[in-house]
């Protein structure tokens, strides 16, 4: 890239927000996965919609690929695929634009973290609907990649369902507003589906391939008046899976229902092995009385074949939340996380398949593999963790080979990817007409191919 082009970019965001230092740029070739992408030529840190538009128009003039990043904590290889690219780092766009209590919505910029947003909403007694276990992930990247986690359960499958509307800078630099604010007279985000097609949904899971999201309107709700916590252990994984299915079927209002296989806990905490399978549940309701009633219904199901672990263990669920997230990811080495949705009603069968896959990974690649995951409406997000030593290049290469092997086996067993990024890109052409349609859509909206080329296999 010539110096004149870089000068033009610098003039859009200011000299302090154009990064060209090689060491700093290496950081942009990585996310929280074992995958390493191409080191970009530069990274820019815009602070306004106009600056984002300027960057996209500049990319069209110079034919430069752009890769968007909010917090950069993806686990699925959302890293630059093409050389000579520029990363658009959205972290400076981290403001709460407006809390609209009347519409029970909040408009935010994409670079805000869930931690920052919840802190802001707490003073009004409000809370967002869905957030990742990693509260330090950003809202923009979460919506753009079908995020789910806390809040998902009988009423909500993922972040896409929790969003009312967007502002998106399209690949030609123009600005699209979706949701009720698309009407020039509305001025508020209170309804998503009124103006013909659901264009908000078009951008959910699009991982930066169709434009740069510069504002999101999230649904908020009154923070629950009560929560109930419980941990149950099971000797049989099939029984634990069946309990989870029945909890969903009778619509117990869980905001967190997490199942960890005992053989995964054996890897993480060998000093206390052997572990039973553990189901950890948080129920939320508007009042304490309702919570007590729901906890009774929960116990009738989970307590039938599982063993309640008592109130102290339940309290630890929230207190040690951050520790669990960190330990599952990093305690036994770094984790190559492969995440797939499986149908809740067949969870027991899938968990048995994953157990034999773990044996396969141990025999062929010499690595340990664990499984945990959580309820999202009718499916279970299975987080398959392949542990490796990040300082050892041989261990990393084996983890990447195992990751690719397991992903194909999981896909062909009927599981579907959670999010795509780089890791699933080579499987997308196997989706036939669905993939062909995505390609046609992409080339229509982005004829220059500047938005995240290679991501989603596009
Ligand atoms: C230990 C750990 C636990 C985690 N637990 C969960 C969990 O429970 N649930 C969950 O959902 N995730 C989880 N994550 C993954 C991740 O932290 C979250 O999903 C996070 O919200 C992603 O946001 P991000 O901004 O970091 O994404 P990024 O990595 O910045 O981006 C993700 C994708 O979205 C695209 N993108 C980002 N911003 C924009 C934008 N403004 N416009 C268009 N495209 C954009 C990127 O190009 C990329 O393809 C976890 C991660 C870790 C490390």
TrEMBL record:
Gene3D superfamilies: 3.30.465.10, FAD-linked oxidases, C-terminal domain, Uridine Diphospho-n-acetylenolpyruvylglucosamine Reductase, domain 2
Top-rank taxon: Archaea
GO BP annotations listed: lactate catabolic process
Lineage: Archaea, Nitrososphaerota, Conexivisphaeria, Conexivisphaerales, Conexivisphaeraceae
PANTHER family in the cross-refs: D-LACTATE DEHYDROGENASE (PTHR11748), D-LACTATE DEHYDROGENASE, MITOCHONDRIAL-RELATED (PTHR11748:SF111)
Residue ranges of coiled coil: none
Entry keyword annotation includes Methyltransferase: no
Entry annotated with the keyword Flavoprotein: yes
Cofactors (names): FAD
Organism, as annotated: Conexivisphaera calida
Domain FAD-binding PCMH-type: 36-223
UniProt-recorded name of the protein: D-lactate dehydrogenase (cytochrome)
Family that this chain belongs to: Belongs to the FAD-binding oxidoreductase/transferase type 4 family.
A Pfam family reported for this protein in Swiss-Prot or TrEMBL: FAD_binding_4
GO molecular function, one term: FAD binding
Keyword field: FAD, Flavoprotein, Oxidoreductase, Transit peptide
Catalytic activity, EC: 1.1.2.4
């Amino acid at each position: 890239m010539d110096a004149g082009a870089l000068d033009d970019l610098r003039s859009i965001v200011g000299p302090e927000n154009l990064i060209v230092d090689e060491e700093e740029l290496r950081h942009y070739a990585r996310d929280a996965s074992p995958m390493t992408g191409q080191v970009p030529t530069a990274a820019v840190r815009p602070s306004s919609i106009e600056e984002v538009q300027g960057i996209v128009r500049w990319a069209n003039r110079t034919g430069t690929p752009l890769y968007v990043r909010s917090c950069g904590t993806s686990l699925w290889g959302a890293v630059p695929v093409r050389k000579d690219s520029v990363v658009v780092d959205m972290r400076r766009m981290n403001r709460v634009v407006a809390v609209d209590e009347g519409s029970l919505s909040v408009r935010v910029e994409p670079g805000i973290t869930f931690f920052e947003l919840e802190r802001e909403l707490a003073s009004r007694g409000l809370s967002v609907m869905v957030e990742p276990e990693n509260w330090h992930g950003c809202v923009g990247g979460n919506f753009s990649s079908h995020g789910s986690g806390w809040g998902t359960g009988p009423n909500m499958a993922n972040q896409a369902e929790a969003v009312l509307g967007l502002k998106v800078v399209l690949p030609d630099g123009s600005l699209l507003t979706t949701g009720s604010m698309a009407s020039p007279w509305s001025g508020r985000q209170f309804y998503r589906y009124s103006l013909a097609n659901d264009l908000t949904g078009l951008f959910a899971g699009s991982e930066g391939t169709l434009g740069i999201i510069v504002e999101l309107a999230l649904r908020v709700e009154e923070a629950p008046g009560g929560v109930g916590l419980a941990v149950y252990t099971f000797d049989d994984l099939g029984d634990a899976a069946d309990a989870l299915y029945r909890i969903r079927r009778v619509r117990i209002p869980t905001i967190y229902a997490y199942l960890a296989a005992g053989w995964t806990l054996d890897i993480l905490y060998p000093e206390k092995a052997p572990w039973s399978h553990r189901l950890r549940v948080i129920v939320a309701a508007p009042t304490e009385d309702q919570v007590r009633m729901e906890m009774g219904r929960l116990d009738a199901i989970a307590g039938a074949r599982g063993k309640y672990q008592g109130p102290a263990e339940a309290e630890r669920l929230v207190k040690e939340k951050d520790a669990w997230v960190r330990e599952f990811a990093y305690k036994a080495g770094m984790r190559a996380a492969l995440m797939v949705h499986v149908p809740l009603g067949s969870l027991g069968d899938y968990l048995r398949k994953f157990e034999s896959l773990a044996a396969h990974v141990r025999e062929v690649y010499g690595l340990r593999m664990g499984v945990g995951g959580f309820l999202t409406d009718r499916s279970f997000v299975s987080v398959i963790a392949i542990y490796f030593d990040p300082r050892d290049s041989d261990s990393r290469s084996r983890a990447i080979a195992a990751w690719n092997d397991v992903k194909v086996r999981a896909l062909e067993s009927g599981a579907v990817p959670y999010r795509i990024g780089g890791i699933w890109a080579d499987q997308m052409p196997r989706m036939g007409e669905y993939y062909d349609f995505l390609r046609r859509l992409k080339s229509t909206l982005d004829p220059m191919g500047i938005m995240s080329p290679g991501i989603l296999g596009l």
